[in-house]
Amino acid sequence: MRSYEMVVILQADLEDHKMVSEDIAEVVRGLGAELEKVDLWGKKRFAYHIEKQLEGFYVLYTFKLDPAQVKEMERLLSLKPQVIRQMVVNLEEK
User: Fold this and answer.
1) I need a labelling partner for 69 at 20 to 30 A (CA). Which of 5, 57, 76, 92 fits?
2) Is DNA-binding among this UniProt entry's keywords (predicted)?
3) How many Å apart are CA 1 and CA 21, to the nearest integer?
4) Phi, psi (deg, nearest 5) at residue 38
């Protein structure tokens, strides 16, 4: 298992960002990850339009996951309509 950080940008106009962030955390846990931290950064303005939107709600996840499951996690998150973008970073790379 490797350590990862993932930043997810959610649609800014959602009613309950905390509930959606918990749904994403369940997806991560469902793939066998050890979720260490979920940090809600809040609503921020984009430097440019992303999918015709000017703002997004940022959430940071820190977790340990088997490297073989990362692609599947990215695929599952790309299917969620509330997720505008996500980025996963391996914390152990040199």
Assistant:
1) 57
2) no
3) 22
4) -125, 120
* CATH code where residue 14 lies: 3.30.70.60
For residue 89, tell me if it sits in a domain: no
* pLDDT tens track, the chain, 94 positions: 899 999 999 999 999 999 999 999 999 999 999 999 999 999 999 999 998 899 999 999 999 999 999 999 999 999 999 999 999 999 986 5
CB 31 within 8 A of CB 73: yes
pTM of the model: 0.90
Total domains in the chain come to 1
